[in-house]
């Protein structure tokens, strides 16, 4: 596979441009090789859409990018939802995928990283 | 003891092809993986054993149909974006139709329920276990066993990642959606409405049994 040119900033730029996102947080979970990203996307375009439709919107907007990487995780919120959640958690609840209710960590990120590269974990 | 009780409850039958390792190697690998997960996630592992998620038996569709796959579909050098745009063959679509309809709850995942090969698939199977999905109403398909399925399911669902969850033949979503529906209660509601959860009495009985062990 050709070297991936997908970076945190290129994803952020694409989402801001294509989905009119007002706030984007992108974390490269791969340790820099550009293969695994987790994101928080805040866009007014999500209003009135359920979770599946929001994710489909993002998948369509980043179709080529997602096809090039191995792992992709997104949380899609409207500006109102994001403000509400910030107010409720003090804006400090950490990455959204890190745990289940009751504080049980899914604890799979490190395991995921430990998989051999040729297993191409998530796409 | 915990790992043994899980082993006794989970079937391996979602692998379309027979395991290549010898039985003893496989057992030790399974036990190691299960020990790891039991150590890291005591609550989750225990709940998983009570639900005893296991694949349905109708999982060999793809091993039999894959021999007729178009050679390009199996090429390792073609860029993934080209594969994604390739039209799904009727044969593949029919095979996936059949897989999607093989049980009320169907998960396309990497690896098997007992040894997921990806953290996202692991999280999804654990959540279905926590929710108490009835093993008799559940089937898992390992996309790593079949390149045609792995590529085809993405196009079939118009969804770029694995795992993928179907309930009553309807696409529910991937791992992010499963996790958020688990957290906000929507998944419990949906599974209850679709009557795919183990019955209360039965679940308690199994939990008690698991605790004893």
From TrEMBL, chain A:
Provide the GO MF annotations for this entry.
Answer: 2 iron, 2 sulfur cluster binding
InterPro entries per the UniProt record, alphabetical: BOL2 (IPR045115), BolA (IPR002634), BolA-like_sf (IPR036065)
List membrane-spanning regions: none
In the UniProt record, which is one GO cellular component term?
nucleus
Q: Which Gene3D superfamilies match?
A: Phosphatidylinositol 3-kinase Catalytic Subunit, Chain A, domain 1
Q: Name one GO biological process term.
A: intracellular iron ion homeostasis
Coiled-coil segments:
none
Tell me its family.
Belongs to the BolA/IbaG family.
UniProt cross-references to PANTHER family, sorted A to Z: BOLA-LIKE PROTEIN 2 (PTHR12735:SF27), BOLA-LIKE PROTEIN-RELATED (PTHR12735)
Name it: Bola protein
Source organism of this protein record: Lasiosphaeris hirsuta
Automatic annotation (TrEMBL), chain B:
Per the record, the domain of life is: Eukaryota
Query: What SUPFAM superfamilies does the database record attribute to this sequence?
Result: Thioredoxin-like
| A Pfam cross-reference name | Glutaredoxin
Q: Name one GO molecular function term.
A: disulfide oxidoreductase activity
- GO annotations of cellular component type: mitochondrial matrix
User: Which GO terms fall under biological process for this protein?
Assistant: [2Fe-2S] cluster assembly
InterPro entries, sorted: Glutaredoxin (IPR002109), GRX_PICOT-like (IPR033658), Monothiol_GRX-rel (IPR004480), Thioredoxin-like_sf (IPR036249)
UniProt keyword Zinc, yes or no: no
Q: Which Gene3D superfamilies match?
A: Glutaredoxin
Keywords of the record:
2Fe-2S, Iron, Iron-sulfur, Metal-binding, Redox-active center
Q: Where is the Glutaredoxin domain?
A: 105-172
Protein name (database record): Monothiol glutaredoxin-5, mitochondrial
Q: Which organism is it from?
A: Lasiosphaeris hirsuta
């Amino acid at each position: 596979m050709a070297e991936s040119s997908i970076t945190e900033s290129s994803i952020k730029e694409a989402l801001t441009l294509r989905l009119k996102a007002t706030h984007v947080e992108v974390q490269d979970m791969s340790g820099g090789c550009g293969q695994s990203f987790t994101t928080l996307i805040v866009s007014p375009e999500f209003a009135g859409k359920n979770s599946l439709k929001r994710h489909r919107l993002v998948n369509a907007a980043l179709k080529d990018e997602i096809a090039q990487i191995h792992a992709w995780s997104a949380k899609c919120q409207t500006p109102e939802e994001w403000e509400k959640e910030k107010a409720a958690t003090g804006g400090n609840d950490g990455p959204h995928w890190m745990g289940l209710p009751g504080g049980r960590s899914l604890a799979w990120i490190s395991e995921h990283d430990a998989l051999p590269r040729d297993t191409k974990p998530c796409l | 003891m915990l790992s043994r009780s899980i082993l006794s409850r989970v079937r391996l039958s979602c692998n379309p092809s027979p395991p290549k390792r010898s039985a003893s190697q496989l057992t030790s690998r399974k036990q190691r993986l299960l020990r790891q997960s039991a150590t890291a996630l005591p609550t989750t592992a225990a709940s998983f054993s009570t639900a005893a998620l296991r694949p349905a038996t109708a999982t060999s569709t793809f091993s039999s149909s894959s021999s007729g796959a178009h050679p390009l579909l199996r090429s390792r050098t073609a860029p993934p974006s080209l594969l994604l745009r390739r039209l799904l063959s009727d044969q593949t679509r029919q095979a996936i139709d059949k897989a999607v309809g093989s049980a009320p709850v169907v998960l396309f995942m990497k690896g098997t329920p007992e040894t997921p090969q990806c953290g996202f698939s692991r999280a999804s199977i654990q959540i279905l276990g926590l929710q108490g999905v009835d093993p008799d109403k559940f089937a898992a398909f390992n996309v790593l066993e079949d390149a045609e399925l792995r590529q085809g399911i993405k196009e079939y669902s118009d969804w770029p990642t694995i795992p993928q969850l179907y309930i009553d033949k309807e696409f529910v979503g991937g791992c992010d959606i499963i996790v958020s529906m688990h957290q906000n209660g929507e998944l419990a509601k949906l599974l209850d409405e679709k009557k795919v959860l183990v019955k209360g009495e039965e679940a308690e009985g199994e939990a008690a049994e698991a605790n004893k062990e």
